[in-house]
Amino acid sequence: MKTQEKAPMVEGASHNTGGFGDGLANAARSIIADARRAIADPELSEAEAVHEVRKALKRWRALMRLLAYAIGEPADQMRTEARELMRSIAGARDAQAALDALTDLKKADGAISATSLDTMRKRLTELRDAAEATTFTQETREKISRYLDFATLSLERWPLKGIDFSTVTDALTVTYRRARQLVPDNWPEADAEHLHDLRRRVVEHRHQMDLVEHLWPRLGKVWAEEAQRLRNQLGACQDLAVLTHYTSPHQPLAPWRSRLVPAVQERHAAHIKTAERLAGRLFAEKPKAFHNRITALWSARHARKHRHA
């Protein structure tokens, strides 16, 4: 699958005033630019375009949740509208998730025959293509474009320049706490909905941490990679849950249920084991310690900038 290179988050913070708003504005503009490219790029297939748009909107929603602490209702409204746009083009996502899960099943013991996998893959591909034809239409593209136009205007109107890092730190800590609270006490017993909710919070946390990665590049890079790995493991669990749904009675993959379910359970257990280990590292700190560490890193960086000014 062809994917776009994500526009870099621009540091842009004013070290003379301690403000962080310029960096947030730059981050917002880069997300909008990525979404526009996904809509307009003729080299992207429908599936690739949907994937890139959804990815950009996830980053946007994470930023809007952060900005809501300073901007209030307008940012919350933008986040809600972005969620509705994502839902409007999610029809093809379920079939693609099941396709990804089929690929994952190749790693299971007693792998399903290549012939069966090919047949299932064809059925799911047909479902995905049909969903794309009815959801990611020209009308939908134009609706997303209008939303991006309004988002661009909103950035010009919002008092982003005055946002300081303490506000950002508070917002980052709230997101961290929300994700940490969802870490299961008993991972093997966690249901698909619980894991999906955790994944959403990890995605949000990962995108918000992109904004401050430059404060400590080495540690920030490791942190982002750990969050991404956890996100991937939880995403694989979600894909397997979607695939299992397609094996229910009267669903396209029902004839293969008896062969798929054991392989799904095996791969699910493997992903859960890895996710538990990653989450234990990523969320080892209590929220207060997380808050204090980010604040200290910002203060140290700010002090260095003043010394070298």
Largest sheet: none
How would the global form be characterised? globular
Structural class: mainly alpha
Number of helices: 11
* H-E string: HHHHHHHHHHH
Number of β-strand runs:
0
The domain count comes to 2
Rg measurement, Å: 21 Å
Distance between the first and last residues' Cα: 46 Å
- Unreliable spans are 7-18
Determine the fraction of residues in helical runs and give it as a percent range.
Answer: over 70%
Secondary structure: elements and pairs:
Layout: H1 21-40, H2 46-71, H3 73-88, H4 91-105, H5 114-135, H6 138-157, H7 165-181, H8 192-210, H9 217-245, H10 257-282, H11 287-308
Helix pairs in contact: 1-2, 1-6, 2-3, 2-7, 2-8, 3-6, 4-5, 4-9, 7-8, 7-11, 8-9, 9-10
Domain CHAD: 17-288
Protein name: CHAD domain-containing protein
Pfam family, one: CHAD
Task: Report on this structure.
The protein is mostly helical. The chain folds into two domains: 14-99 and 120-161; 164-309. It is 75% helix and 0% strand. It contains eleven helices and no strands. α2 (46-71) crosses α8 (192-210). The longest helix is centred in the C-terminal third of the chain and has 29 residues, at 217-245. The termini are far apart. Mean pLDDT is 89; it is low at 7-18.
